[in-house]
Amino acid sequence: MLRALSKSHAAAVRILAPRAAVLVETVRGRKSRFDPKAKSKADRIKVPSYSNAKDMFRLNVRFSEYQLLVRAIRFMFTEKRKKRKYEEEKGTLAEERVRKEKEEHRALMAWNDAENLKQRIIREERLKKITEAKELKLREEVLLHQKEQEIYIKEKEMLILQLQEEVKNFITQQNLDERIEEALNNPKSYNYAIDKTGQITKRTAFQ
């Protein structure tokens, strides 16, 4: 109904308007590029959508692989088309070219095998040197560990001998009376002063 009213209104304006006047109909649609921003969107800030860096890297890698595969397939089809056209145009020459290509391929394969053998010898020598270096380092570590173990055992043996010597001076139930009598016969004064070097400078006489 509104559409009909708008049509009738436009027709009435067209009839009643003077001849020299310019008629402009109001049409709802997209605004022009010169119109200002809407008030409801004045404070709107465009935030880019979230994208995961790992996913983007994976997609780029897969897209590169896809482009490479498509390029290779396109090149293969192009080569097949050119080869078919060449064989159709030049039959005997094509056979000669195929024979030369086979010979060239055979020579290149022989060269490739020789290079592979050379590289394998170099690689085996390098791996042998690396293995020998690892074994030498392992032997050095074992010898160093053995020396450290021997030093540790000697230190413990010396400590045991020292303890055995100290045990002889321990007070036991058997020599308790002798030690008491010795302490009474040889009194000692522990009231003394020392200097900065730790030497005893003055001792109080035992009373």
Provide structural commentary.
This protein is mainly alpha-helical and 207 residues long. It has a domain of 35 residues. The chain contains four helices and two strands, in the order ααααββ. It has a two-stranded antiparallel sheet. A hairpin with a 5-residue loop joins strand 1 and strand 2. Helix 2 packs antiparallel against helix 3. It is elongated. The N terminus is likely disordered. It comes from Danionella cerebrum. Keywords: Coiled coil, Mitochondrion, Ribonucleoprotein, Ribosomal protein, Transit peptide.
What is this entry, summarized?
The chain has a domain at 55-89.
Task: Summarize model confidence as the mean pLDDT.
Answer: 82
Q: Which stretches are low in confidence, meaning pLDDT under 50 for 5 or more residues running?
A: 1-7
Q: How many beta strands in the DSSP annotation?
A: 2
Order of helices and strands: HHHHEE
In helices, the fraction of residues equals 55-70%
End-to-end Cα distance? 134 Å
For the largest beta-sheet, the strand count, sense and barrel status come to: 2 strands, antiparallel
> How large is the share of residues in beta strands?
under 5%
Strands of the widest sheet, in order across it, are 1-2
Query: Pairing-aware structural class of the strands and helices?
Result: mainly alpha
What is the helix tally?
A: 4
